[in-house]
Amino acid sequence: MIDFSPNESQAAVAAVARSYAKEVLEPRAATLDRTGGFPHDNLAQAARAGLLGINVPEALGGRGAGVVAYSLAITETARACAATTVALCVSNMVAEVVTHFGNEDQRTAYVPRLCRGELVVGAFALSEPGAGSDPGGMRTKATRTDRGWVLEGSKLWITSGTDAGLFVVWARTSDAPGTRGISTFLVPGDTPGLVRGKPEHKMGLCGSTTTAIDFEACEVGPQALLGEEGRGFPVAMMALDGGRVGIASQALGVGLAAVEAAAEFVAGDAGRRGQQWVQWALADAATELDAAQLLVLRAAWLKERGQPFSREASIAKVFTTERAFAACNRAVEAMGAAGCDEAHAVERGLRDVRVTMIYEGTSEVQRIVISRDIMRRFASG
Amino acid sequence: MIDFSPNESQAAVAAVARSYAKEVLEPRAATLDRTGGFPHDNLAQAARAGLLGINVPEALGGRGAGVVAYSLAITETARACAATTVALCVSNMVAEVVTHFGNEDQRTAYVPRLCRGELVVGAFALSEPGAGSDPGGMRTKATRTDRGWVLEGSKLWITSGTDAGLFVVWARTSDAPGTRGISTFLVPGDTPGLVRGKPEHKMGLCGSTTTAIDFEACEVGPQALLGEEGRGFPVAMMALDGGRVGIASQALGVGLAAVEAAAEFVAGDAGRRGQQWVQWALADAATELDAAQLLVLRAAWLKERGQPFSREASIAKVFTTERAFAACNRAVEAMGAAGCDEAHAVERGLRDVRVTMIYEGTSEVQRIVISRDIMRRFASG
Amino acid sequence: MDFDLDEDDQLLRDTVRQLCEQSVRPHAGEWDEARAIPAAVRDELGRMGLWALRQPEDEGGAGLSTVTACALVEELAAADGALAMLIAAHNFAGLAHVAAASASQPALAGELSAMASGQRPCAWALAEGALGSGEGALAITATRQGDAWALDGEARHVLGAAVAGRFVVFARAEDGPTAFLIDADAGGLHVSAPLRTHGARAAGTAHLGLQGVRVPDERRLGAPGRALTDAATIVALRELSWAAVACGLLRGALQQASGYAQQREQFGRPIASFQAIQWKLADMATGLEAAWLLTVQAAWRCDQGRPLGEAAARARTWATGAAVRGCSEALQIHGGYGYTREYPVERALRDARQLEATAGGSATARSVLADAIAERLG
Amino acid sequence: MDFDLDEDDQLLRDTVRQLCEQSVRPHAGEWDEARAIPAAVRDELGRMGLWALRQPEDEGGAGLSTVTACALVEELAAADGALAMLIAAHNFAGLAHVAAASASQPALAGELSAMASGQRPCAWALAEGALGSGEGALAITATRQGDAWALDGEARHVLGAAVAGRFVVFARAEDGPTAFLIDADAGGLHVSAPLRTHGARAAGTAHLGLQGVRVPDERRLGAPGRALTDAATIVALRELSWAAVACGLLRGALQQASGYAQQREQFGRPIASFQAIQWKLADMATGLEAAWLLTVQAAWRCDQGRPLGEAAARARTWATGAAVRGCSEALQIHGGYGYTREYPVERALRDARQLEATAGGSATARSVLADAIAERLG
Asked: Assuming Cys at both sites, which of A202, B67, B322, B343 could form a disulfide with B300, CB separation 3.0 to 4.6 Å?
C-alpha cells in the first residue's frame, strides 16, 4: 500500500548522516573546495559513522540498511559537501558490487575493509578516452598468463583515482564483439603497474579527485577476476544503475541546500523578501526538488525490493540532476551578487552540481534509456 | 549602416494593412472562426487594398513594395485575423513565384489576375501523404503527352484548397533519383481532373481551408510547365524560404496582439494588475517578440537585397513561431479563465498560432537547416 | 515506504480503464464538438460510483481512499479531459464541501446521496482569485431574511454549471463570506448558455446569475463568515484532483505520440528513430512520472490526515505545467495531423491549457507555495 | 532599414578580433586562475582605444558609435568574459557617467583623458537594487564640509574595484542621493581583497569602504539629490553593454561546442551527427541571433538619441539568459571534458552566470520592462 514515510531504521541512518554532515563536512567544505585535494579525514570519519557500506550486509561490516536509507544518507551528506559525497557514493557502490558479484574470498577480503575505511575508498575504472558512453569501444585489455592476468590500457574520469585503495576495473578478455568480451577485475591500489594520473582541474567538486589510471603491464592474480570471465557488462550495468540512484541523491542534496540557503538569505533581505519573482522562483525550485526526491526514492525502493529499476533510475537521474542545477541557478538569482560570491555555499553548489548532469551517464544517455522504454511500453499507441 | 527604421513606402504599406485589418478583418474574425469556411470577401477586399501582390512589380499589377513591406503588412493583418492572413501569405508567394520563374506569357496570364483577386487566391500543392518534409519521396507524376502533360497523384495540406483559382503543383517528371526529377506546373483551379478534397477539421485557423487535392488524369497544356523540366526543386525552395518569412510574420502578429490584449485586460483588473508574475510574463513575452521581429525583418531585408537568406529565414521562423506560441500562452495565463473563453481573441490566437510551428517546415526541419549551417561556419572550433 | 497501489485498487483501476476504452475514449471527440456529455454516460459512470468516489459506501459512495480516487480520475482524463474535470470538480470540490459541512448540518446529509448519481453534478462556484484577495472578489451578496437568505449577484466561469443540479456559492453576508448549497431549479437562478471555452468544452462551463434567490438557512455550509477559510481546504482538494487530471491528459498524449512515432515514417524510417523525437518522448515520460508521484504523495497525505495545501499546490503546478508542455510536444510529433481534430492530441492540449488556467490557474497554487515558504522563514 | 555594420567598423572589429586571438584568448584561462588581468594587457588595449570607446577622438577616445562599441565589447567577450565586463563597465558606466557630468562640471574634463588609458579603470559603485528601492539602499553618507564633502560607508560587490583608479560612488546627502568621483588613493578609502566570485574572476570585484573620505565639491557628479535619476540613464547603458558581453560569451561557446562536436567521435561517428547535439547547437545559434539583434537595435537607438531604457533592458534579459543556457549546453556537449578547466566552456558558463546575476541581475531589467508596460497602459 502506498506509503511515503521512511521507516525507523531508514530515518536513523539519515539522522546519522545528517549529524556527520553538520559536524564533520560542513565546517570544512569551503576550505576543501578552495584548497582542493582528497578529503582523507572526512572519509575516515564516514567509515567510523558507518557510511561506507550503508547497503552492505552487517555480516560484511556494513549497515545492512538498504537502498532507501542509502539514498537518504547521501542526500544529507551532499547538502554539506558534494565533493566528499561523490567519493562516498562510489565507495558504497564498490562495496555493493563486490558483495553481489564477488566470491566468498573476495567478499571477506575487501568488503569489511572498505566499510572500515582501511582501503581509504573504492573506485570504478570503466570509462576510457574514446568510449565515454560506449562500453563496446573499450580498449583496455586483460591477457591471461600462468600467474593470472596482465592488464594494459588507459582509463579516464576515475573518482578518487589519487587515493582509492581498491579499483574495480573493466577490461577486454577476448575479441568477442560488443560487450561480450569484457570482464571485471578487482585491483588493489598498490598493485605495481597501476599508475595514477594527476587530478583533473575541474569547475567544481574540487575536494574530490578525478584522474586517469594507466595500466602498464599490471599483473594481478587469478583471484582478481570478479564474477565470470566475459560477464563484465552486467557488473557495469549494476554499478551504473545503482550509481545513478546515488548521484541523483547527491544532486538532490545540493539543490535542497541551495534553496534553503537562498530562502534564509532572502528572509533577511528586506528588498528581496517582498519580491514575488523571488518567492516564485523558490517555490518552483522546491516543487521540482520535491518531485525529484520522490523519483529518487522510488528507484531506491524498487532496487531494495530486487525489482527492475533501470528505467526508474534513469528517470530519477535526469530529472533530479537537471532540476537541481536549475534550483541552484534560481537560488543564485534570488540572492543576486552575494549568490555569486564564494562566501556563500550556493556558489560552490552551482559549480558542484553541474557535473551530475554528466557523470554516471549523461542526461543524453538517460534520455536514450527512457525513450527506448517508452517505445516498448506504448508500441501501438 | 545599421538602421532599424522602416522607410516611408514600407511604413505606408504597413498603414494600409493596418487599416484593412482594423476595418475589414477584426470585426469578422470571431464569427469567421466559429462558422469556418473560406473568407471570400476578406480576400476580395485585400485585393482592392493591394495586399495580394505586395512584393510583385507594379508592371504586373503588384505594389512593388518589397519584402520588408510584405512582412510588416502580414504582421498587421495577422493581429486581426490569422486565418485570412495565411491565405493572403500563400497567394502573395504564388504571385512572387510565377513572377520569378514564369515566362512572359505565364506572368501576364496569371500575376495581374492574382493581384486583382480574379483568381480568388493562389495555392501551393507540394506536400504528399507520405512525404511531408521529404520532397525526395514525392509520388505525384506528370507524364508528357502530345497535348502537354497528364498529372496523377495526391497532395495534402493545401491552404485555400477549396477555393484557390490557381495551383502551383510539383510532380515527378522522370525517375531521376532524389529531387532531380521534379518539375513545377501551373494548374488553374477549374482544370478537369483537379479534385478538391473536403476541408480538414482543424484546431485553429478555422477561417481558412486546408484540403487534399487529387489529380485524376488531370490534363494540362505544354505551357503549364513553370521553369525548366526537372528544375522544380529550386522553385519549391524559393517558395518555402519566402514562405517562412511570411509565416514568421504571421505568428508575430498573433503574438503581439495577444500580449497587447492581455496587457489591456490586466490593466482593467485590479487583482491582476499588481501581480509581479503577470507583469514579468508580459515583459518577457514583449522582449521575445521584439527579438522575433528583428529576426523576421532581417531575413526579409536580406531577401529584398537578393542576398542568401535561407538560414536567416529558418532562424526567424523557428524563433518567432515558438516565441509567439509562448507569448499566447503567457497572455492566456495572465488573463486566467477569461483568456480561455472565445469571448476574448487571445483564445483564438492560441489555437491559430499553434500551426505556425508546423507548416512551411516544422520547427524540427528549421533546426536541421540551422545546425547544418553552424557546422559549416564553425568547422574547426 | 511503498509506491504501489493495493491489488484491489489496481483491479478497480483496470475496470475503469476498460469502461473508458469502451464508453468514453471513442466518443470524447464528439462530446468536445457537441460541447456536452450525454446524460446516459453520466449515469453509467454513476453506477460505477464515480460521482461519489470518496463518500463512504453506506452513504451511497464508492468509499475509496483519496489515492485511489485520484488514480481513477487519472484514468478518466487519459480518455477525456472534460469528463475528468467535471467528475473531479464534483467529487473534490462540490461534494467534498457539502460532506464536510454535513457534519454540523445534518439536514445536508440527505443531499449527499442524491448527489452521488451524477445526473445533476454539484458545481462549486468560488470566484477566481477569491482566496488571495478575500471577499472583495465575491460578486454575490447574501441577506438574512428570517430563517432563510436572499442571494443576488453572479459567479463567472463556473465549471459544470450548464449541467449542474446543485451549486455551492460563496456570498458576502453581514458576518463575512458565507457559503450556500442551492438547487439549480431555484427561482431567480439563471445559468448562461455554455461558454465557448478553449478546452474542456464538454464540461459545461457557464456563468451563474442569482436574483433574489431564496435559500433556507439549513442549506448554509459551515459557519457564517467562515466560508473562505473552509474553502482553502476544498481548494487544496480540488488542486489535487486537477493534478490527477493533468497526469491523465499527459499519459494519454504520451501514448498517442509514442504510438504515432513508431508508425509514421519519414526518410524511409519511423520517426521514432530520430533522436529529436526520442528526446521529446523521454522528457514527457520523465515529467509525467514526477507529476504522478507528486500527486500520489499529496493524496496519501490527505488520507493520512496531514495538511494537504502545500503538497497539493506542488502537484498542481508541476502536473498542469508538464501536461501543457507535453501535450504540445505530442501535437508537434504528429505534425500537421496533430493540428486536425482527427487525432485526439489537439483536444488534449486544449484541455490541458484550460485546466492550467482554470480556477485561478497555477498562479493561485504558486501563491500558496510562496506563502508557505515565507511562513516557515518567519 | 539596414542590418550591416559599416565597412570601416567591420575592419576595426576584425582588428580587435585579431588582437584577441593573439593576446587575450590564449591567456584568459590563466587570468581566471590568477584572478587578475596583467597591467600590460590593459595598456595594450588602451593603445587600441578600448578604454575610451565612445569618447570623442579629440578627448583621447576612439570616437566610436555605440553600435560599434558594442561590437568590440562582443569581440572581447568571445575571448574573455572577465576582461569584457571590466571594459564594458568602465566605458558604459564609470566613464559615461563622468563624461555626462563633465558637461556642467568643466573641472571633470581633465579626468576623462586620464581615464582613457585603462591603467586604472573607473569603477561604478551603485548599490544593487538602489534604482528600485531608492536611496535607502545606499550605504554611504555624504556630509557637506565647506567646499568639500566627507563620505562614509561601503559599497559591496563592486566590479573592477580591485584594479580601479577611480570610483563613482553614490551617497545619501542632505539633498538626497548624490554621486561623486573619488580617486582610489584618497585617504580613508579602503578596497577589500578581490572577492572569490563564481565567474569574471579576473575582473577584480571587491567591496569598497569609505571612512571620512574627503571629496572636493568639483568632483561631485551632477546636481545634489539627482544621482539616482542620472543613474537610470547610465544603468541603461551598462545593461546594453552587458548584453554585448553576453552575446560574445555565447558566440565563443557556440564556436567551441560546434568545433568539438565535429571532432569528438562516439559510436564511431562525430557526435555532431546526432540530432540531440544538432538541436542544442541550433537553439544556441537562434538564441544568439536574437540576442545580437536586440543588442544592436538598442545601441542604434542610443546613437539616434532615442530613449534607451526599455530596449537595453530587453537586450539584457534575453542575452544574458540565452548566454547562461547556451554556455551550459556547450559544456554539456563537451561531456566530462567540458567540466574541466582544460576547455574554456566552463569559464564561459561561470562568466555568463556572474553576468546574469551582477548589478541586480536580470530582475532589475525586468522591473524596467514591467514599469514601461504599466506606464503605457496608464
From this structure: B67
